[in-house]
């Protein structure tokens, strides 16, 4: 029993640590995205800023990480739930056994104090173990919710960063015209393949339609001109 209690304490400590880590990651991600959005208000989307957006997107955790931790947590939840039910059953049996032993203990030769002490110690250990298991289950459920929230934030951040790289509005000017020739030259290189991958990863069908419209001269209002869009797609694919 003491070993089970020790193991449950360690599992609970690990779960609390993971829960705090997930919540901290969510807070940090929110802060980074706010900094990026604030920075986007004052910076022109040049090479360095585009690179910082690309780096930020690549630093986001992938779905494989969440899948692995979710599977491990589900196994631990099932195991802990079974252990908790078993523990409650043992407590019930212990109470019943104590009632059956009560009459013989009253006989002159019965060692009432020793039996009461043994039963009390076992009951205390089972109760303590049950409390740890209950807290562990609650912590794992909270961890599950925290991870789901982080995963949703990561998905939103990846989409937002891709949109910023591809469609950030810019004011028309000479810089846009001057970038047209380099953009056309870039389209003839292998980088176009990388841009296509970025489109598939972070944007979706609607954005691809907008991209096609931009290059055909049907650019929707508020989107970057074709030359700038090409440049941003290039950065997105690097």
Task: Give a brief description.
The protein has 238 residues and is mainly alpha-helical. The chain contains 9 helices and no strands. α1 packs parallel to α4 (112-167) and α2 crosses α9 (226-237).
Number of domains: 2
Give the helix level as a range of percent.
over 70%
Reading the helices and strands in chain order gives HHHHHHHHH
Look at the structure and give the mean pLDDT.
75
Q: Rg from C-alpha positions?
A: 30 Å
With helices defined by DSSP (H or I, 4 residues minimum), what is the helix count?
9
What is the end-to-end distance? 56 Å
Given helix and strand content, the structural type is mainly alpha
Uncertain segments: 169-181, 186-192, 203-238
Name the shape in a single word.
Answer: rod-shaped
The percentage of residues in β strands lies in under 5%
Total number of strands: 0
Main beta-sheet strand count, sense and barrel state: none
SSE order and pairing:
Layout: H1 2-40, H2 47-58, H3 63-105, H4 112-167, H5 174-178, H6 180-187, H7 191-202, H8 205-215, H9 226-237
Overview of the structural elements:
The protein is mainly alpha-helical and 238 residues long. The protein folds into two domains: 2-45 and 62-154, no CATH class; 169-238, no CATH class. It is 83% helix and 0% strand. The protein is built from nine helices and no strands. The chain has helices at residues 2-40, 47-58, 63-105, 112-167, 174-178, 180-187, 191-202, 205-215, 226-237. Helix 2 (47-58) packs antiparallel against helix 4 (112-167) and helix 4 packs antiparallel against helix 9 (226-237). The longest helix has 56 residues, at 112-167. The chain is rod-shaped and about 85 Å long. Keywords: Coiled coil. Residues 5-39 form a coiled coil.
